[in-house]
Design brief:
This protein is of the alpha+beta class and 265 residues long. The protein has 2 domains: 68 residues, Roll (Ubiquitin-like (UB roll)), CATH 3.10.20.310; 162 residues, 3-Layer(aba) Sandwich (Rossmann fold), CATH 3.40.50.11690. Helices cover 29% and strands 29% of the residues. It is built from 5 helices and 17 strands. The strands form 5 sheets. Strands 7-10-11-12-13-14-15 form a 7-stranded mixed sheet. It has a 3-stranded mixed sheet with strand order 1-3-2, with helices on one face. Strands 4-5-6 form a 3-stranded antiparallel sheet, with no helix packed on it. A hairpin with a 4-residue loop joins β5 and β6.
Length: 265
C-alpha cells in the first residue's frame, strides 16, 4: 500500500521533469534565430547589415543582445540601429537608419563630415568640403565617429540642425557655403556667389530662408554679389549694397501675401 502511494507521488514529478526537458529541448531547437530581416536600408544591402550585426549561430530569440547589435551596426558611422523586433519562432527584424551627410566642420585641422543631428560620419572629409555648408562658431570639446559632437554649445547644435533641415526642405543647401553660429543672436550665412545673409536669431528659419531663396538668384543675376541681405525679420528682406548697418542704400522687398492681404513692394 505504501509503495503505491509513493508511486502516485513520484509519477507527477517525473512527468513534470520530462515536460520541462522536452520544452527546453524544443525551445533550444525551435526558438533559435534562423532569419534576420532588415528594414529602413536604402544604400546599404541587407546582407551587409546582417553581417555587420553578427548575431552568433544558435542564438536563442530571448538571448539576442540588443546592445551588442547597436554597437556592431554603429561600427559603420553612417548607420544606426533604430529598433529590434521579433517574429516567432525564429526571425529577428532590424530597423536601421542610414545617416546622410549634411554639413562639414573644421576641427584641429581636420574636416569633419556631419549628419543633420551633428553625428560625426568622417574625420577627414576634405574632399567633401565643397558639397555641404560649413559650420563655424561651434567649440568642439570631444568627438567620436558615429557619435554626436560634444560641446558646451549644445544649443548651437540644435540651431544648426533646424537651419540645415529648412535649407534642405527649400532645396537651398547648394546656395550656402558657411553657416556662422559664432554669435547665436546674430547668425550669418555666406552664400555661394552672392551677398552675405544676416539671419539674426534662430527663430522662423522657414520665413528667413524663404526670403533668401526668393531674392538671392535675382541679386546674383543683377551683379549684386557683395553687401548684406538682411532677413532677420522673417516677414520681409532688406538688401544693403555696402553691408552697412543703417538703412541707407537699401532695397526692400515685402511679402506678396501676408495674413491673406496683398502688400506692395
Amino acid at each position: 500500500m505504501k509503495k503505491n502511494k509513493r508511486k502516485r507521488k513520484v509519477l507527477p514529478i517525473v512527468l513534470t521533469l520530462m515536460i520541462l526537458v522536452l520544452a527546453g529541448f524544443a525551445s533550444y531547437n525551435v526558438f533559435q534565430v534562423r532569419h534576420v530581416l532588415v528594414e529602413g536600408n536604402e544604400e546599404y544591402s541587407a546582407d551587409y547589415i546582417v553581417t555587420l550585426a553578427d548575431i552568433p549561430d544558435e542564438t536563442l530569440m530571448i538571448r539576442v543582445d540588443e546592445n551588442k547589435l547597436e554597437e556592431n551596426i554603429g561600427g559603420n558611422p553612417f548607420l544606426s540601429l533604430e529598433n529590434v523586433d521579433y517574429k516567432l519562432p525564429d526571425t529577428v527584424v532590424l530597423t536601421v537608419l542610414e545617416r546622410k551627410p549634411a554639413a562639414v566642420l573644421t576641427y584641429a585641422g581636420n574636416v569633419l563630415l556631419l549628419d543633420r543631428e551633428m553625428n560625426v560620419l568622417e574625420m577627414d572629409a576634405s574632399a567633401e568640403s565643397a558639397n555641404y555648408p560649413e559650420l563655424q562658431g561651434i567649440a568642439v570639446e570631444a568627438l567620436n565617429l558615429g557619435k554626436q559632437l560634444q560641446t558646451a554649445d549644445a544649443f548651437k547644435l540644435s540651431v544648426a540642425t533646424s537651419i540645415l533641415d529648412e535649407l534642405k526642405t527649400q532645396d537651398a543647401l547648394g546656395m550656402v557655403g558657411v553657416i556662422d553660429l559664432t554669435d547665436i543672436n546674430n547668425i550669418r550665412l555666406k552664400t555661394k556667389g552672392g551677398p552675405g545673409v544676416l539671419f539674426g536669431q534662430s527663430d522662423n528659419p522657414a520665413g528667413k530662408i524663404g526670403w533668401m531663396v526668393k531674392l538671392l538668384p535675382s541679386l546674383i543675376q543683377e551683379g549684386s554679389t557683395q553687401g548684406i541681405l538682411d532677413v532677420t525679420a522673417g516677414t520681409f528682406a532688406t538688401y544693403r549694397r555696402d553691408g552697412a548697418q543703417d538703412n541707407t542704400n537699401t532695397d526692400t522687398q515685402e511679402p506678396e501675401e501676408q495674413n491673406g492681404e496683398e502688400d506692395t513692394a
